[in-house]
Description:
Radius of gyration: 24 Å
Number of domains: 2
Number of strands: 0
Oligomer: single chain
Helix content: over 70%
Amino acid sequence: MKTKNVLSVSPSGDQLRQRLVTQSRELFFRYGFSRVSMDELAEDLGVSKATIYRYFPDKESLLREVLKEVREALLFQLQELQSKSELSCREKLMKFFTSLGQTMSLINRELLKDIRFKLPDVWQEIEAFRREKIFPVFCQMVLEGVKKGEIRSDLDARLFLEIFYFLAQEFVNPDWFVKNDYAPSQLLDSIMRILFFGIFLEEDKAAGGKNGGHEKNKKRKGQKDGKK
């Protein structure tokens, strides 16, 4: 760690605690959990270790508070987007995933690996949050899009949601990051684009597509020419 932030101690304990969390988040996101010691945190934050221990008994509890704030901010944003009736389903989803991608772009892959392999309880908290808090609002958003005619009604929306959740859960996983050269934000963006926009060009998306129809027309024309 080479950063250095001098933290001016505020007379308010709540303010100091919040500043500890805010600046610790930057260090954890940049370097991971294992590479940041309490001594380095204290030095970088410009306070004594005793000051940190006054608010957090150990480094893990500090990380938990950092992640709690991130989760709460994401959930608030998703709920706020869902409440905006003037936005289409597509706009809501794009805004949320853009914001989520920006947050994930700040997270070092080492932090995800540290949490997954060294702090399994913290990883389980993240999994539970995604399943119990984020996923239900996401489901509501997509099903509302189906009702409004913004999403194809011939598709099984619930199956799509389960597929999306499974992919996000499976790929946003340190095991996968170890084997593949993807940043978390890049992976999320790729999953989103494949599922929401498909793999075919715009003219090929419809069943039978324009190109498919074009090929059928060419075949019919050839048959007619042959009869002549």
